[in-house]
Design a protein that fits this description.
The complex is a heterodimer of chains A (about 190) and B (about 160). With about 190 residues, chain A is mainly alpha-helical. Helices cover about 70% and strands about 5% of the residues of chain A. The chains are: A mainly alpha (about 190), B mainly alpha (about 160).
Chain lengths: ~190, ~160
């Protein structure tokens, strides 16, 4: 079976091997979309916000991701597949956002950093500042691995990277995060 | 090896919940991947718990409706594309027509324009002065008509 629709070059119509051949594919209707949206929009927003460091950009990108997703007329067997493709679409949009509006993005991150500066004892701001010091791809890797609990294959799919390279990239991102946390004195005991 | 360590999920759970078994502690001492994952896990868990969202996300019904409207306007754009191309082509053709006519028959047109004075018109009526040739006059009329029609079409289409 061939893919009919694509989203950012990703085929949306999965073949039987992807769906396990168990569940029938169904086109998206409003009721199904509503269920899917309620289940994923919050986590997608959090992901995009951590990636961009900009709440209004995250608002825009969430809507764009869902618009593009719907425009591609997705027919998936499971919500899990839809979520994976939505995250991939959102990741691409976020990276486009960085490319197109580099200056705006850095200003937003500066604002995040600046927002943390008056209250130096605020752990929340310290955490945000540490996270914003990572590169966008490192932030995406860590978020998908730890918060979305995606496996290497799913992370690779979401970020358009080879599954084989995820282990090394994730290791580096975790190591860098560890170094930043050590430098700022944010150890596990502080986080509990 | 590109696979994650098979103990990693247990290590992450232990790090998140701070419930370590001796076996996991020993494993982390020898596995660099798990040691570094255990370091990042509590931070990421804590970061995920911080809710920064100040605005409510739009209602799914609104997103659905907007997507349908956007899809409709995308269809409209697709339908209008050949018309837009034809319009651009017409602008080019009319401009080229005028340029060709003005270049080719400039001296005749200049002479004819010179006769458009009260005395020139009177002479023309008496038949003593030569006007434009029939073909040039026809081209002038056709080009003027097409230009006016195109201008009206552009104005009405924009409205």
């Amino acid at each position: 079976m061939t893919a009919e629709a694509t989203l950012f070059g990703v085929p949306l119509l999965l073949d039987e091997s992807c769906t396990g051949g168990r569940e029938p594919r169904r086109p998206m209707d409003e009721a199904r979309f509503e269920r899917f949206y309620r289940a994923t929009a919050g986590s997608l927003w959090a992901y995009l916000f951590r990636l961009t460091g900009d709440a209004s950009a995250a608002d825009d990108l969430v809507q764009k991701a869902f618009f593009n997703f719907l425009r591609s007329k997705p027919t998936f067997a499971s919500d899990e597949h839809m979520k994976r493709y939505l995250f991939r679409a959102a990741t691409n949009l976020a990276f486009d956002h960085f490319r197109d509006k580099k200056r705006r993005a850095s200003r937003a991150l500066d604002e995040v950093r600046a927002a943390g500066s008056p209250d130096k004892g605020d752990l929340r701001h310290d955490m945000m500042r540490v996270f914003s010091e990572l590169k966008p791809r490192e932030r995406a890797l860590l978020w998908l691995a730890h918060v979305e609990e995606s496996n290497h294959e799913e992370i690779g799919e979401a970020l358009g990277l080879k599954t084989k390279s995820i282990k090394v990239l994730l290791f580096r991102a975790r190591k860098k995060l560890g170094e930043l946390l050590t430098r700022r004195g944010i150890g596990p005991e502080v986080l509990r | 090896m590109s696979e994650a360590c098979r103990h990693e999920p247990h290590v992450l759970r232990a790090a998140n919940e701070d419930r370590w078994t001796d076996a996991l502690r020993d494993h982390v001492k020898t596995c660099q991947d798990c040691a570094i994952a255990a370091l990042a896990a509590p931070f990421m868990r804590r970061l995920a718990r911080v809710d920064e969202r100040q605005k409510k996300l739009p209602d799914p019904g609104v997103v659905w409706l907007k997507a349908q409207l956007l899809a409709g306007s995308a269809v409209d754009d697709r339908i209008a594309r050949p018309l837009n191309i034809a319009q651009m082509f017409s602008y080019g053709a009319v401009a080229a027509g005028w340029a060709a006519l003005l270049t080719w028959k400039w001296s005749d047109l200049q002479r004819w324009l010179g006769t458009l004075t009260p005395s020139g018109v009177a002479e023309g009526l008496s038949g003593s002065s030569a006007g434009l040739s029939g073909s040039v006059l026809m081209m002038l009329v056709v080009l003027s008509t097409v230009t006016v029609v195109l201008a009206f079409h552009t104005i009405l289409a924009e409205e």
